[in-house]
Design brief:
Helix content is about 45%, strand content about 15%. A hairpin with a 4-residue loop joins strand 4 (about 220-230) and strand 5. It is an alpha/beta fold and about 300 residues long. The protein is globular. It has twelve helices and seven strands.
């Protein structure tokens, strides 16, 4: 853990960070918990969810910039290249090669910095789950990176790129960037937490998850792919949008399964706003529909 103005809980798992956040702030509304955790997760902070999140961002982060930058300096070890790589990862598609190309640095130099940040538990390297998807390994497919704390991800995505304005008390550019990207940004955390929720949901049955991750290649991306102790294959999607998920999302997953020649036992859909009546009518043993209310299983 990195101690400073805020204690950065980078030694804790994403589940333990979420539990800590909900417990510390006495949050029972899981929709609000996810929204605020995406920004303040991984630090000990008194978040006031009754206030608009933009006000909390201004008050708790932007206005405290001069204190927080010292904590962030510990993350980057004062290394400008590390700082630039972390910002490129936070603002991009999380692929290592994309970040290195953006900065015009070699793969060897870039991956050395990434390895250093992984050893400090600020980044976590993720590989496409070729084996789970019954596909041959393809070394041309870039690895992806997660920040181990949502707060660090937020900082390098929205504070670091416009730090001069924030330092001088001008928050307009940073808030505009947040407004334009907050849905996609929050979706990353929603996806991470969804994996943990599914583990708990399956564990309540006689089965359990033994492997879980994500799959991507040049054309296909799967939010969630998992196998259980009983050798059942699960395929899923996670949607943190303000509209209900429709049957077309299930159809899309089934088409992907067909392309990859996968025999799926259970489809799992996570949605911020719930599901269409048509989709709810299909719910059963082979289709699980989960919303933020189900996230209470990892909040206590």
């Amino acid at each position: 853990m990195i101690k400073g103005y805020f204690m950065i809980l980078n030694q804790l798992s994403i589940t333990d960070q979420f539990k800590s956040f909900c417990t510390h702030n006495h949050i029972t509304d899981m929709g609000k918990a996810i929204e605020y955790f995406a920004v303040f997760g991984g630090i000990k902070i008194a978040a006031r969810i009754e206030q608009p999140i933009e006000e909390q961002i201004e008050d708790k982060i932007f206005a405290k910039y001069k204190y927080l930058r010292n904590d962030i300096g510990e993350i980057t070890m004062g290394n400008n290249e590390h700082h630039a790589i972390l910002s490129a990862i936070a603002q991009g598609d999380r692929r290592t090669n994309s970040a290195f190309r953006k900065l015009k640095i070699s793969f060897n130099d870039g991956i050395e910095a990434v390895d250093k940040q992984c050893s400090r538990r600020m980044l976590k390297l993720e590989k496409s789950r070729f084996a789970l998807a019954n596909q041959e390994f393809n070394e041309a497919i870039s690895e992806k990176l997660f920040f181990t704390t949502p707060f660090a991800h937020f900082w390098f995505a929205f504070v670091s790129p416009v730090f001069k304005g924030i330092r001088d008390g001008n928050f307009e550019e940073a808030l505009k960037a947040w407004e334009n990207n907050k849905a996609e940004f929050t979706s990353t955390v929603f996806n991470q937490l969804s994996h943990e929720v599914l583990k708990n949901v399956i564990a309540k049955s006689d089965d359990r998850i033994v492997n879980i991750g994500r799959y991507w290649d040049e054309k296909i991306s799967i939010d969630l792919i998992a196998t259980t102790k009983e050798n059942k294959l699960i395929l899923g999607s996670t949607k943190f949008t303000n509209s209900k998920v429709k049957k077309s999302e299930l159809t899309k997953l089934k088409e992907i399964a067909k392309q990859l020649n996968l025999e799926v036992d259970t489809y799992v859909l996570f949605s911020k706003k719930g599901f269409s009546n048509e989709l709810k009518s299909l719910k059963g043993e082979n289709l699980k529909l989960l919303t933020p209310r189900n996230f209470s299983v990892i909040s206590q």
